[in-house]
């Protein structure tokens, strides 16, 4: 029992010593705070020997909240580091406070650089005030002020290569009231190394670069102000937009292409082309709000939609043309020989089509139909023979001859009708075969145009986006990050 009592007594004494020491340290810090702020002028900048105050700035990017092309605004959440030297806050040569290497002070009690982001688009009403965060000062007089902030800045966006676009958005910073001869801005030496280590990956944008650099002084009338710019380079992840904005239109375009496989005599061919055209138009109207708008520049994706609508309209017109050729009636004119040579001999063979036609016509020149003959010699009757027979034969034989003559005349009429009808059918079959050849040719041309337009516009969009990212890296003298 005595051992436990001694242990508890030691622990009590140790805790009392620690509390007393901590209390003494707090009292010493409060005394140091009063010592430093005695006769301290908050409104006076800590410049000495007519030299400007050197203020170092660094931004840590935590999150890219949004980058809206329609509003041309970027919303980011950052940690802002501001560091400067104030000789009035030094105590390293004071032996009384030698135990304190640094402590926290209220930011309103000392001079703080009045830095503003000049391209800020809006100020959030619920944003936490930077004055709520303490200021750290070390014994050599170096003050470091760190606080989080959400910033919405204006950004000059590039809309043409959407959805393969790369955006370069700066956060421009300068002093609001201190010119260059009183305050000099610099980027912290380690800004490039630590500016993105806390970055939370975005679902829409791939961070390629976040770098700070000093800009030429902003000359306002007779006064110049130092400027810093922190450039954010981000490339869009295109996968979601490919599935949502491009792939459905490509599938509808292929559906229109396969509509050419329907025979021209099919009544649903025109209905299919019109349905696909209306579907693409309605789909474009539905996704217009998601596309970036610019009065001067039209995105490649918008050009692609317009090209698809133009191709579908052209397919409807060509379908009408083919159906008109195919539906030639019995009164159709014969096809010219040059057209037969071009369609059947040249185009048909090039497209591996069977353009040979079955000879279904009846050659009426080979049809020989004899009239009634006499019983005596079997030769063909003419009018004189009929007259003789009428005179020599009896009334019964005379009636049979007349009947045979009428039968002969009717057979000749039937033969002439079959000949003319077969000729009309042959002409109609030739036009139907021509319609099939033309339909096959138009299907091939439509496929080439469809693939050519899609490949050209989408590849232009992709390579222009990559070129913009490369130019941004060259401008900032930095190799872009690849996520």
Can you offer a commentary on this structure?
The chain is α+β, with helices and mostly antiparallel strands and 483 residues long. It is 44% helix and 21% strand. The chain has 8 helices and 11 strands. Strands 1, 2, 3, 5, 6, 7 and 9 form a 7-stranded mixed beta sheet that branches. A hairpin with a 2-residue loop joins strand 10 and strand 11. Helix 3 (239-258) packs antiparallel against helix 4, helix 5 runs antiparallel to helix 8 (395-475) and helix 6 packs across helix 8 (395-475). The longest helix is centred in the last third of the chain and has 81 residues, at 395-475. Residues 16-22 and 358-381 have low confidence and may be disordered.
Properties at a glance:
11 strands; 8 helices; alpha+beta; four-stranded antiparallel β-sheet; 483 residues; seven-stranded mixed β-sheet; single chain
């Amino acid at each position: 029992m005595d051992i436990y009592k001694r242990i508890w007594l030691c622990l009590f004494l140790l805790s009392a010593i620690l509390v007393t020491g901590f209390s003494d340290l707090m009292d010493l810090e409060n005394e140091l705070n009063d010592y430093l702020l005695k006769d301290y002028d908050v409104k006076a900048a800590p410049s000495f020997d007519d030299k400007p105050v050197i203020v170092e700035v660094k931004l840590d990017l935590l999150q890219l909240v949004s980058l809206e092309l329609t509003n041309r605004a970027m919303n980011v959440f950052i940690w802002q580091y501001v560091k400067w030297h104030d000789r009035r806050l030094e105590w390293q040569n004071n032996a009384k406070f030698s135990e304190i290497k640094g402590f926290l002070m209220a930011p309103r009690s000392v001079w703080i650089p009045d830095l503003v982001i000049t391209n800020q688009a809006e100020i959030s009403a619920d944003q936490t005030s930077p004055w709520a965060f303490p200021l750290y000062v070390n014994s050599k007089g170096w003050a470091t002020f760190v606080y989080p902030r959400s910033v919405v800045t204006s950004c000059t966006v590039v809309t043409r290569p959407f959805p393969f676009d790369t955006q370069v958005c700066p956060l421009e910073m300068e002093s609001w009231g201190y010119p260059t001869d009183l305050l000099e801005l610099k980027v912290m030496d380690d800004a490039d190394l630590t500016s993105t280590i806390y970055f939370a990956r975005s679902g829409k944008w791939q961070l390629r670069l976040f770098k700070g650099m000093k800009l030429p002084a902003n000359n306002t009338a007779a006064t110049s102000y130092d400027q810093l710019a922190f450039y954010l380079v981000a490339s869009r992840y295109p996968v979601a937009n490919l599935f949502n904005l491009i792939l459905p239109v490509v599938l509808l375009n292929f559906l229109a292409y396969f509509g050419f496989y329907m025979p021209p005599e099919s009544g649903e061919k025109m209905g299919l082309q019109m349905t696909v055209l209306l579907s693409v138009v309605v789909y474009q109207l539905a996704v217009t709000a998601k596309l970036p708008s610019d009065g001067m520049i039209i995105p490649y994706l918008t050009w692609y939609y317009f090209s698809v609508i133009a191709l579908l309209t052209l397919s409807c017109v060509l379908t009408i043309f083919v159906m008109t050729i195919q539906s030639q009636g019995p009164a159709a004119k014969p096809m010219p020989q040059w057209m037969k040579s071009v369609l059947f001999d040249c185009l048909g063979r090039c497209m591996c089509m069977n353009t040979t036609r079955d000879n279904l016509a009846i050659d009426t020149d080979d049809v020989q139909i004899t009239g009634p003959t006499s019983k005596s010699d079997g030769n063909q009757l003419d009018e004189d023979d009929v007259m003789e027979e009428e005179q020599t034969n009896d009334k019964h034989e005379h009636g049979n001859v007349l009947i045979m003559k009428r039968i002969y005349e009717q057979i000749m009429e039937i033969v002439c009708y079959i000949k003319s009808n077969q000729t009309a059918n042959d002409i109609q079959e030739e036009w139907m075969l021509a319609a099939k050849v033309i339909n096959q040719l138009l299907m091939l041309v439509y496929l080439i145009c469809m693939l050519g337009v899609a490949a050209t516009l989408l590849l232009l969009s992709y390579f222009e986006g990559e070129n913009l990212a490369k130019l941004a890296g060259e401008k900032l003298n930095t190799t872009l990050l690849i996520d």
